[in-house]
Amino acid sequence: MRGSVSVIIPTLNRLEALREAVESVLSQSCLPNEIIVVNSGKDKLTSNMFSDTNTVKIEVLDVESLGPSAARNRGIYRANGDYIAFLDDDDLWHSEKLKIQMEYLEQHPEIYMVSSRMISIGGDIKVKKGPWISGDLFCELYMKSLIPTPTVVAKKEVFDEVGVFNEKIMRAEDYDLWLRITRSFLTAHLKAPLGWVGRGAGRLSDDKIDLRNNSIRILKEYYDPERISRRKYKKRMSELEIYLGREYVKIGEMEKGKEHFVSAVRVNPLSRRPYRYLLRYLIRDFAGSVFE
Questions:
Q1: What is the DSSP string of 94-143?
Q2: Which of 2-16, 82-96, 151-165 has the lowest average pLDDT?
Q3: What is the spatial distance between Cα 52 and Cα 120, in angstroms, rounded to a whole number?
């Protein structure tokens, strides 16, 4: 394998899950050079707590609890590798994950970042080396958040160019960074899973409403009419407004739900989809008022 790899794992009070995550890295058929565990929790961690290896350096970096962006950034600043890979403390890599991605990067030197799909823990992964999508993936990513952070391997130099995770964003901070990278560099995504995503307690992504609101703000900031057509922009924004409307209805905040369905219609008035959701809401609201 050409080029050294640093794996960054932020952790917050999930020692047993962390052990499994680290073990999945140490079980790689193509081992990285170092693992940096960025500990923001109360647990006292040392490198001796993990499997002993003479090949992979394991370092524990204790930091203040300032959120996942800050933790990953401390790992990036500390890393010595030519490539940076990310893993969360409750997620796992398939043993062939790093090998497949590094082989692709070696064969395609024009590519600066790779990623793949993930599936839920317990699911069966049949390792596939394709299909890949590659090149200018900015538009693809703009229309769909398809990059799971624990699958990313990126050349370290990209962070010098576009910056690191925005520590002011608590949700969708990874989406923000991947958009910046794909806007400036050629990247590739394997449309097959190479890892398992966990459901640890307190995962920030569980706050779906805040996540989508942040996504809307980010997409407005990065909208580029020369690369994203107005039609696609309206479709993307309308879909996010529909999603928010559905989530508010689920938790009983009907008026907020209605507001987002109306916004979806206003953003993309030529599409039938937002009208369907608004009509369903109005029928449900009318039926409820009849029987009150």
A1: -TTHHHHHHHHHHH-TT--EEEEEEEETT---------EEEE--HHHHHH
A2: 2-16
A3: 28
Determine the Cα–Cα distance for residues 12 and 62; give it in Å rounded to an integer: 11
pLDDT reading at 282 higher than 70: yes
- Residue 247 confidence (pLDDT): 92
Q: What are phi and psi of 247, to 5 degrees?
A: -65, -40
In which residue are the tokens 């409820």 written? 288
Q: CB neighbours of 220 closer than 8 A, spacing ≥ 6?
A: none
Higher pLDDT among residues 208 and 144, named by residue: 144
d(CA 151, CA 140): 17
> What tokens does 149 get?
């952070």
167 near 90, Cβ under 8 Å?
Answer: no
Yes or no: say if 152 and 105 are a contact pair by the CB < 8 Å rule: no
Q: How far apart are CA 47 and CA 265, in angstroms?
A: 54
Question: Is the torsion defined by CA of 21, 201, 213, 76 positive or negative?
Answer: negative
Entry pTM = 0.91
**How many Å apart are CA 16 and CA 42, to the nearest integer?**
14
What token pair was written down for 287?
A: 């039926």
Under the banding of pLDDT at 50, 70 and 90, the label for residue 130 is confident
Q: Are 162 and 177 in contact (CB under 8 A)?
A: yes
Task: Show the tokens assigned to 264.
Answer: 């979806």
Q: What is the pLDDT of residues 216-254, one digit of tens each?
A: 999 999 999 999 999 999 999 999 999 999 999 988 899
Task: Indicate the pairing of strand 92-93 with strand 187-197.
Answer: antiparallel
